[in-house]
Specification:
Elements lengths: L4 E5 L4 H12 L3 E6 L3 H12 L5 E5 L5 H15 L4 E4 L17 H28 L3 E5 L3 H4 L5 H21 L4 E7 L13 H14 L8 H13 L8 E4 L15
């Protein structure tokens, strides 16, 4: 197959799904993984196929090294190559920072297991193929890793670790593979929805947009645009962490309060 092959972990919804579709539109064959949302994974694979490419959905938990190896094998068995890896699989727990007693070691273990260890394991699983392809790795991080704000301090610290891991891996893979990260602020997906009642969530999104210098809400498609560029363009760029937040990082205001 002459088409490039892209693996997108956590591709059943949100940024992962939007990234899969953008890469499909660019002509890449697509493998999306899902942890439990089988319907979402299969739906986005079907949408990708309408762009004239091949696409499959594979169940995988990136915190399992065996699952990561299985995902790489599925791509190689089907297309004989892996050119692009987008690490979008991630998780959080909504934990107040008002009392440190509300956070325990299990919170750190599980969030790091997916957001940091899982990303590393998936990259290690594709290493041979992606070096052969002189490909590109894009990690979906978060501005929480720079600001310390977000769903919890545990989540924020995991994304800071992912940012550092991105730098280390960019050095490791040079000059064959580029490794970059996108660091969205709040994105208008359902990621934060469990924290709010429906009306409160809509108000929260309005507040986010009003605080941003660009007065707009970042959508999953906006992040996917940057993912596409890092994956297929930016050929002289590696080890970068691109903030996508409508300019909110330029202000001292925040719509997120962890109390």
């Amino acid at each position: 197959m002459s088409r490039k092959t892209a693996i997108i972990t956590g591709g059943s919804s949100g940024i992962g799904a939007a990234s899969a579709l953008e890469l499909a539109k660019a002509g890449c064959n697509i493998l999306v993984t899902y942890a439990s949302n089988k319907k979402g994974g299969e739906n986005i694979a079907e949408v990708c196929r309408t762009e004239g490419v091949e696409a499959i959905a594979v169940q995988a938990d990136v915190s399992s090294n065996d699952d990561c190896i299985t995902v790489n094998k599925a791509a190689v068995d089907k297309w004989g190559r892996v050119d692009i890896l987008v690490n979008s699989a991630g998780m959080t727990r909504f934990l107040s920072s008002a009392a440190l007693s509300a956070i325990d070691a299990d919170d750190f273990a599980r969030i790091y297991e997916v957001n940091v260890t899982g990303t590393f394991q998936m990259i290690r699983a594709v290493e041979e193929e992606i070096i052969k392809a002189k490909g590109s790795i894009v990690n979906i991080s978060s501005h929480a890793g720079k600001s310390g704000l977000g769903s919890s301090m545990v989540y924020a610290s995991s994304k800071a670790a992912l940012n550092t891991l991105t730098l280390s891996l960019a050095r490791h893979f040079a000059p064959n593979v580029r490794v970059n990260a996108v660091c969205p602020g709040f994105v208008g997906t359902d990621w934060m929805a469990p924290r709010f009642e429906p009306e409160q969530f809509e108000k929260f999104k309005e507040t986010v947009a009003s605080l941003a210098p660009l007065k707009t809400l970042v959508l999953a498609e906006d992040v996917a645009e940057a993912v596409l560029w890092f994956a297929l363009g930016g050929t002289k760029i590696t080890g970068q962490q691109l903030t996508i937040d409508g300019g909110t990082h330029l202000t001292t205001a925040t719509p997120v309060k962890n109390d």
